[in-house]
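#struct-pred

JT: dropping the chains for the assembly here, can someone run the whole complex?
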Amino acid sequence: MKELLKEKLEKQFTTVQFEFIEQFDELTLKFDKSAIVNICAFLKDEDGLKFNFCEDITAIDWATRKNRFAVVYHIFSMENKFRLCLKVDVDESECSVESVSSIWKAANWAEREAYDMYGITFLNHPDLRRMYMPEEFEYHPLRKEYPLMGIPGAIPLPKK
Amino acid sequence: MQKLTKDDVHPKIVQTLLGADVHITVDDALENEMILNMGPQHPATHGVLRLLLRLDGETVIACIPELGYLHRGYEKMAENMSYLEFIPHTDRLDYISPPANNVAYALAVEKLAGITAPPRAQYIRMLLAELARMCSHLVAIGALAMDVGALTVFLWGLREREKIMDFFDVICGARFTTSYTRIGGVASDVTTDTMKNIIAFIDQFEEKFDEMERLLNGNRIFIERLEGVGVINKEDAIDLGFTGPNIRASGVEFDLRRATPYLFYNEMDFNIPVYTEGDCLARYFVRADELRESAKIVRQVIDKIPNGEVMLNSPKKVLPRKTEIYTKMEELIHDFMIVNFGINPPVGEVYHAVENPKGVLGFYIVSKGEGQPWKMKIRSPSFANIQAIPHLVKGQMISDVVAIVGSIDPIMGEADK
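RK: done, full complex below.
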């Protein structure tokens, strides 16, 4: 499967740099964030790949690295019974990435959650609201600088 | 359910609910249209799910689920505690089937740490996971029947569930919050007597479940409330991230126990029930059939279970036995190190998903080689399943919303994390 993916992707996207990482029997694919929508659409529709099921989208806050965030996509091909992890780096100065909710509808809420928790904006998302926290909340709780105990007074008490 | 005023709903939610094409407001609705608030405190929403419904008469035009009323920040808490300390928190995700969550979490951490539990422990995990699946489906079927007006099945289902809970009590020491798995095995062994009792339970269960089914399958009200309601086709079901019994009711034969076998599921003989209708009734049938399949797996597990240890002997990663901690210096040191500083798995990222009663439960763990995970993401099945509710209720009557939510079987503990 790895060879097939490598061959097909490098043939289709000649200008994109791909990095294949294999760890714990899992395949991770790293590339630049500008190509995310095209690559996802290709992975979903191409014969022999058919990654039709978007399991999860989340982000990692590396705190001290140059590219502070990484957005992680877990996609699964029901035809090949194969799971692939896609990874793109996102810097804090340009904290956004194109939304893939036009490709998988399941990405809609997963991206809302990542936005809520990390403050990464997903461009062209149909309905980018907070998932769990109230809309008035100013912080992004899963960022490393947010304290475990929370910030007192961050959520206003309900009106009587 | 109460009628809302403008101040109760955030403008962004109102905007999504109404769409761009209309200009009605919550206060001044069109003659027939209104916005209705259902939940978070509503008996039919199975927890604290809040649905905002835009209605035309009795027909649902749009629906917005609002989550977060049970958000406890488990992903943040996980970053601040050791791998072992998080096990009790997995009980509180899908609180109808705690042992299945324990198993899913332990498997993910073991994959990261590069260890495998001994065969007997893995068989015990399978046994517990399948009993948990039976628990979960009994509640799901009972609650669905109760939502559409048949109360007896719920009581009969809980009676059977109570018997399974008694086994959890004997095996784990707790009925509900089991916290049974450990990294590298399970907390304690299952005795032969208990296994005999489980077999006796399974023997009478099939008969009892037939009785329950007879109450429903011949019940005209039950069938007519569910048949053809909340239909979702194969393509949409995959696209929206449906998993578990819900996707199998739409004609997709997708079960991680078969697709990516874990534990010893590849040695078990069981069928994956698939229905093609994709309506609420099909989702009920899938759960009913899965109950029987789980009973079949439980029988095979008890039949095949090997003798041996239930905890791995790997001092740097796995807690030593209590008797050895009290008598040997080495073990005392290892216990101290694991409890205080954690198991320090290698640097890396791991994603492991299993087939839970509600669907695919995945743990994504990022390790920096420390005792605590750098990041943990829980891919919860109910979260993705609730996402499909707006699609399912569109064009249905308001009374069907209750049946659709019941047939999806969401658990808010897991959807809100």
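JT: nice. The longest helix of chain B spans residues 119-147. The first strand of chain B starts at residue 2 and ends at 3.
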